[in-house]
Design brief:
- This protein has a five-stranded mixed β-sheet. Strands 1-2 form a two-stranded antiparallel sheet.
- It is 48% helix and 13% strand.
- The two termini are 30 Å apart.
- By secondary structure, it is of the alpha+beta class.
- It has helices at residues 3-25, 44-58, 78-89, 95-115, 137-159, 168-188, 237-244, 261-269, and strands at residues 123-126, 133-136, 196-202, 207-213, 219-222, 231-236, 256-259.
- The chain has two domains: 3-164, dinb family like domain (Four Helix Bundle (Hemerythrin (Met), subunit A), Up-down Bundle); 170-269, Nonspecific Lipid-transfer Protein, Chain A, CATH 3.30.1050.10.
- InterPro entries: DinB/YfiT-like (IPR034660), Maleyloyr_isom (IPR017517), MDMPI_C-term_domain (IPR010872), MDMPI_metal-binding (IPR024344).
- Residues 174-263 form the MDMPI C-terminal domain.
- GO terms for molecular function: metal ion binding.
- Residues 15-156 form the Mycothiol-dependent maleylpyruvate isomerase metal-binding domain.
Amino acid sequence: MTDKQTVQAYTDAWTQSIESISELLAPLPTDAWNRATECPGWSVRDVVSHIIGVESELLGDPRPIHALPRDLRHVTDDFSRYMELPVDKRRCWTPVEVTSELEYTVIRRSRALRNARHEPTDLVRWPAGPLARDVPYATLLRLRAFDVWVHEQDLRRALQTPGNLDSPAAVVTRDLLIASLPKQVAKQAGAPIGATVAFDVAGALPFHRTVRIGPDGQGTVDDSVVLAPEVRLSMDWQTFVRLCCGRVRPETAIVNVIGDQELGNRVLAHLTSTP
């Protein structure tokens, strides 16, 4: 695909996922909005409020004026504090108020994306508080498709309504997480030079990838099959996503570790690639 086609693909993936969230929320009873998700401290309402907050900021809306309570245990640093503010601001809102704002925000963002005149390589601001930085426009759209889909799955697990596991945004997520594997295996987990770590992922979006640690200690990833890697990690697609996004602890995840158990457990402990 050309760069502009890639931008359109990311936009379409974001659109499909965020509209699926709106459809998922429409029939929810009031008590379901308070169900806990795998995001520490966040309920269904909180995850939706987070999505609204980020998309609103991308639209240029001012940050809400709000004082955070001091007893939020999951707020542990400047980044989580930044992300919490628009969430806590909406904790007293009714489901109707939240869904109405979500629908209005989606309409505004969709219009803004259609009318955008950015080139794929133009630098734009990624709003993430202390982690904010300028990124190419295509990268921003990729990150938004990824983030919205991951939170869609947070909501679906909390509400026990599975779906969209192989959607366009799921493919964006798969490719982004695979791209992070060399760093996680080589740098974070400290796999030794010459090691190979194979990932066998089954389910709605299956794939096989092998991470190789080169003579310089750097990792690379490809789709070749290695018959006898140092360690092979087999799991389903949802488990892979939950591990990479910090939604489940490695010791409680269902993963088959074949080969070097110590290295395999170390890799699993360092798979998380999101803040």
